[in-house]
Every structure is written in C-alpha cells, then in structure tokens.
Write a structure and sequence with these properties.
seven-stranded antiparallel β-sheet; FAD-bd_PCMH; 615 residues; 3 domains; Uridine Diphospho-n-acetylenolpyruvylglucosamine Reductase, domain 3; 31% helix; alpha+beta; binds 2-acetamido-2-deoxy-beta-D-glucopyranose; 22 helices
Length: 615
C-alpha cells in the first residue's frame, strides 16, 4: 500500500477547518505537523517504539498469491489475531473512512481485491507503549504539536473509539504485566483488601482468567477472550457470567495507575483523586487519562454450572410476523417470568433468540451443582416439552475450571454471536427490574422484544438481522452505586437487549447504512418502554442522538465536571465519550453522522519527495 504517489497528497490542501474551541487539530498537511527529524527525535526519546502502520490486509493488496496474504486471509475473522496488530480493527467499520479502506471480503477473503490499500481511519504512526514513560512522552509530544491522540488497547469497540484518522495512536496492547497481592492497601488509604489482582493495560480477558485460574481465582470478565479488560471494558462497565454474583468489572476496581493530561503518573483510588477514580470506574475508556495498571478484587474459584439449551423452531420459515409467533412469545415470556428468581440467585444468562431457533445458557458459579438444576427445573420442563421446539442440544454441565467453561462457549453456535472481521451495527437497551415484577410488565416487555425482532428482520438485510440477544449478566445484586460513575441504569436492570446486523465488504454503502438504521429502529420499542432509561455505553448505537442520558444517565454532569478538571484542554477525546466535541469536530468526519466530508488518514510522506518539494 502506502503512498507511492505522494506529490499529490502533499500538494492537495485539505479543506480549511473551522474549529471553534476544538483543540488538537493539526493535520499532516499543515506546518504544525512535526518534520521527519522531529518524529525521529521523538522516536529516540521513547526507545524506538514509534511504528509505521501497516493495514492488516496490505499483503493481499500487494500480492494476493503471497504466503503473507494467505495468512491474513486465514485469520481474517480471528479476534485474537486481529487484536494483536495495530493495523486491524475487530469491526471493519472502523478501518474505513469514506472510500479509503483496505478490506477483504470476510467470507471469501481472496476474491475481489482491487484498488489501493489505504489507511482509512488507522493512524499513519502509532506508539507501541510498553512503559508509563512512553505514555507521558507521547502525551507531551501531541500537546506540543497539537496533534489529535487516539488510544487503542485490545479487542473490540463498537463505536470505533480506539481509532481516529490523522491522530497519533497510543497502543497499549503490549503492557502485559500480571500480578497477585494476597493483602493490599491502596496508596494513601487505610483500607485492607485481600486477594487483589493487578494487570497492565493490555492484558486480555483470556490472559487474565488463565493466569488467575492457576492461583485459584475467578476474574469478572465478559464473553469475549480478546477484550482488554482494563480498557473500555474495565473503565466503562464490564458485564459477564459473574456479574450477578459479584457485579461489574468497575465494581472490582481498587486502584488504577494512570497518566493524566498534565503528564503526571498517579495512583488513584478511594483516597487519592477519588473524583477521578469514581469517574474512571464507569465513565468510559479513552476519556480521562491513560490507564496503565488496573488493580481489582479476585474471587475464589468455584465450578461453573451451566444449563444449556439449543433448539430449532418448527415452521419458522412460515413466520411473517414475530409479534404473532406463539413459540417466540412463549419462550421469551417464560424467560422473563423466571428472570427475577434467577438474577436474585446469581444466575447469569446468555440468550440468543433467532428467527428460526433459540440458544439459551443459564450459568451459576457455585460449589453446589444442584442449585442451578432446581432453579431451572420448570424452564427445562417447559422447553423440553414445547411442541414448537425441536431440541438440538440440552445439557446440565459443570466445569471445574473457568477455562473449560470458556472452551465450551467457543462452540460455533454460541461464539458466532460475537463475530468479528466483519462490519457491525448494533443497538441496545437495559431493561429495568420493575418490568419483570407484574404480568402486565412482562407482557409489555415481550411485546417490545418481538416488535424489535420484526423491525430488525424486515428493515435489516444483513447476517444476524432479526435476532435479538438477551443478556442477564449485569450487577443485579450490586445496587450500591455511589462508588462508580457507571450508568445508573445498569443497577436496576435485569436484561440488556441487543439487536444488530453484520455487513461485508461487498455490501454497498446504502446497504451498510440500512443495516445500521435497522439496529437503531429495532431497539425503539424497548426505548419507548423505558423512558429516561439507558443503554450500556459499550454496546449501543453509535448514532444515538441522546447519548449523554442514554449512555451515562444522571451521572453525566458530574462526569463532565471531573473531565474538565483533569483534562481542561480536551486532550482525550472520543466519539460520544464524556466531553465529546460534537459530530462536527472534523476528526470525526469518518462517521456517517458527521456533516463533514470524510478526511481519511493522510499517508506518510516519503522523505525524498518531501525534500524535493521543499527545495
Ligand atoms: C523508530 O526507531 C526504531 C529503532 O531505531 C526503528 O526500528 C523504527 O523504524 C523507528 N520508527 C520510525 C517510524 O521511523
Ligand atoms: C419459569 O417458567 C416456567 C415456564 O413458563 C413456568 O412454569 C415457571 O412458573 C416459571 N418460574 C417462575 C418462578 O415464574
Ligand atoms: C468450594 O469447595 C471447595 C472444595 O470443597 C472448598 O475448598 C471451597 O472453600 C469452596 N468454596 C466456596 C466459595 O464455598
Ligand atoms: C481548548 O483548550 C482551551 C485551553 O487551552 C480550553 O479552554 C478549551 O475548553 C478547550 N476546548 C475543548 C473543546 O476542550
């Protein structure tokens, strides 16, 4: 890929930007952009960790028959391998800016490759940070030159907050420390904690549970192994199979090591900078500071008990209106009726309601393998004897090791619900506990869900359209909300409902847009049912207009105040994060909602050519 023909790029001035008070707007075409020698000096100051970005599929655009290309093609949908490379995003949306892209056709990667491999939204340069000092130096450098900063950790982000065209990227993937404290007292505090885990910014969920499992502990991770749990997960919420037992990831936090905009390294906790600690426990990643270490409560390992049910729906191809499908209605109603009891008893749930089948997992971490059986006995009887269901798989399972439970969830029928290496649109809503407490509430809830399915399947035309995901993985027994800045809507809710759809490179922009639109529309019946309610900030619709209330709830004003205190110039900024500059900030021109025409990342200039021009 990169820029063989750069004269054009250098000469063509980008549109003049009217920026108001928006800061950090230097573009590579402007005089404020560092010279080659300034970049080199910076590189030396960080021990040579400045890197030139290579988009993941670059080898295929260079030579489709090369071994390097075949490797890319083979692993195109593999989340761990995508996460291990700066030049790949988990969702293709965020590799693209306007018509600039370097995509492969996800399902048939070696076909249809033509045109130029461009950076799209990826930064031309990134810093491969290993130490806190690399971070401080990078913050100072971007402030000196007024360059936009982006922070990328590990795993997916459904708003693309980890990538910004023409920014300098700070990549924290390689911060891989792992440690255990039998006893721990946060800096400056008197509180004593036991069994505290400590991880560097780039530790993934898989690395965390693998390490702590050998020490006899569980970690409150989510469903996807590639997620960096100290990043947007651990700063924005973090739900998963242990949520109903122990709460969100942010609930486990006892201390963070962060570098604030002023370059200061701080150990923040309930005693030091408690306002910042509160905000970073739920206010979102990439917003307040660069987090380098995360210390959190571990939990003694117990077996993971699972009730797993998968079934096809008889006559599914004849269903034209899901609101009238008795099977769908009865299944979702039974689920809703049982939910309060399950949540109160620490049972977590993953339920995928497809147009033609259902997959339902009820999960209870417990030494007592009988509890889950009795809690789900009615549900099991109901499903097993339902004449509209063709049971494909049904089992009570007990996994002594967390890693064995994870291995079980990697079966395609479950894992495919978290597909990456494709374009993705999604929208979600948290459903309050009150709805589950009356017959009328349950009826309204089920109606809204089935309407969502109907809208998703008629408006959406992508893979996954028509399928509703129901997560009962939140902090249903951890209602104390004063210590974390996370969206209060989490605390009182029993379900997180998500609708979405997938697009491929071969889908035209119009189709991509309609899949995005369908996700937002599908969630509307759930919104109408929950006025003033919310959505998990990491699993929402990036087009959400009412984003402050929806993603942050009544905490927004306080979160913004803390943001202004620690980051007065807006050094840290991302799409619909606290302190977001608005859709018209030209650095968000790649998002469809922006009024600006897309300004993709400017490729690096070849020094010789630049010199010729300067002569
Ligand atoms: C930064 O320095 C290292 C070590 O000298 C070098 O390998 C790397 O290519 C340099 N980065 C850039 C962008 O020039
Ligand atoms: C769970 O669902 C089944 C099937 O609808 C029902 O028989 C049972 O009463 C429900 N349990 C509760 C606690 O509502
Ligand atoms: C679970 O059982 C094991 C083995 O009997 C025991 O050592 C452990 O303390 C129990 N854990 C809990 C949380 O009850
Ligand atoms: C830009 O920086 C100035 C201080 O240098 C600050 O007053 C202003 O609020 C900043 N703008 C944004 C959008 O953060």
């Amino acid at each position: 890929m990169i820029p063989r023909i750069l004269l054009l790029a250098v000469i063509t001035a980008l549109p003049a930007l009217v920026l108001g008070s928006v800061n950090y707007t230097c573009l590579p075409t402007q005089n404020c952009w560092p010279t080659s020698s300034e970049w080199q000096t910076f590189n030396r100051s960080i021990g040579g960790k400045l890197r030139v970005t290579h988009p993941r599929a670059e080898p295929c655009y260079d030579d489709v028959s090369s071994t390097a290309c075949k490797d890319v093609a083979t692993g195109y949908l593999a989340s761990k391998s995508r996460a291990s490379q700066y030049g790949a995003m988990e969702y293709l949306n965020f590799e693209v800016c306007g018509s600039d892209q370097c995509l492969l056709n996800s399902l048939d990667p070696l076909t249809g490759i033509h045109g130029t491999c461009s950076l799209g939204r990826l930064s031309a340069y990134y810093v491969e940070a290993h130490y806190a000092d690399d971070v401080s130096k990078t913050l100072a450098f971007v402030q000196q030159h007024q360059i936009r900063l982006s922070i990328k950790n590990t795993g997916h982000d459904s708003f693309g907050r980890s990538v910004t065209a023409n920014s300098l990227a700070l990549w924290t993937y390689n911060m891989k420390d792992l440690g255990y404290h039998k006893a721990f007292t946060p800096s400056g505090c008197k509180t004593h904690y036991q069994d505290i885990g400590e991880i560097g910014a780039g530790i993934s969920a898989e690395e965390a549970y693998t390490f702590f499992e050998t020490l006899g502990f569980h970690v409150t991770i989510g469903a996807i192994g590639s997620v960096g749990i100290a990043g947007g997960f651990g700063q924005g919420g973090g739900h998963g199979p242990l949520g109903p037992s122990y709460g969100l990831m942010v609930d486990q936090a006892v201390e963070f090591e962060v570098i604030t905009a002023d370059g200061q390294l701080r150990l923040i906790n309930e005693c030091n900078d408690p306002d910042l600690f509160w905000a970073m426990r739920g206010g979102g990643g990439g917003t307040y500071a660069v987090l380098t270490r995360y210390k959190f409560q571990l939990h003694p390992a117990v077996p993971i008990n699972v009730y797993s049910f998968e079934a096809g729906i008889f006559g599914a191809s004849l269903i034209h209106d899901f609101t009238k499908s008795m099977v769908h209605r009865q299944v979702v109603t039974a689920l809703a009726k049982n939910q309060t009891t399950w949540s109160n008893n620490h049972v977590a749930g993953y339920n995928f309601i497809y147009p033609d089948r259902i997959i339902s997992l009820q999960i209870l971490p417990s030494n007592d393998t009988e509890i889950l059986k009795s809690l789900t006995a009615d549900w099991n009887n109901f499903l097993s004897s339902h004449p509209g269901l063709r049971s494909a798989q049904k089992a009570y399972l007990t996994f002594d090791k967390f890693s064995d439970y994870i291995a079980f969830t990697r079966r395609p029928s479950i894992a495919n619900n978290g597909i990456v290496g494709v374009g993705l649109a999604e929208a979600g809503r948290l459903m309050p506990r009150e709805l589950f407490s009356t017959e009328a509430g349950i009826e309204n809830l089920v109606d809204a869900f089935l309407q969502g399915m109907q809208i998703s399947s008629t408006l959406g035309t992508g893979l996954g359209s028509g399928t509703g995901q129901i997560y009962a993985t939140g902090p249903s027994n951890h209602i104390d909300n004063t210590k974390t800045g996370v969206n209060p809507a989490w605390r009182g809710s029993l379900w997180e409902i998500v609708f979405g759809g997938v697009w491929l490179k071969t889908d035209a922009q119009e189709k991509r847009d309609s899949i995005q639109h369908a996700a937002g529309e599908a969630i509307k019946p759930m919104k109408d049912l929950t006025p003033g309610g919310g959505c998990y900030m990491n699993e929402g619709d990036w087009m959400e207009q009412d984003w402050q209330q929806t993603f942050f709830g009544d905490n927004y004003a306080q979160l913004l105040e803390v943001k202004r205190k620690y980051d007065p110039t807006g050094l840290f900024n991302c799409w619909k994060c606290v302190g977001f500059n608005g859709e018209d900030d030209p650095f968000y021109s790649c998002y469809g909602q922006s009024q600006n025409s897309p300004i993709p990342s400017e490729p690096l200039r070849v020094p010789e050519l630049v010199q010729q021009i300067e002569l």
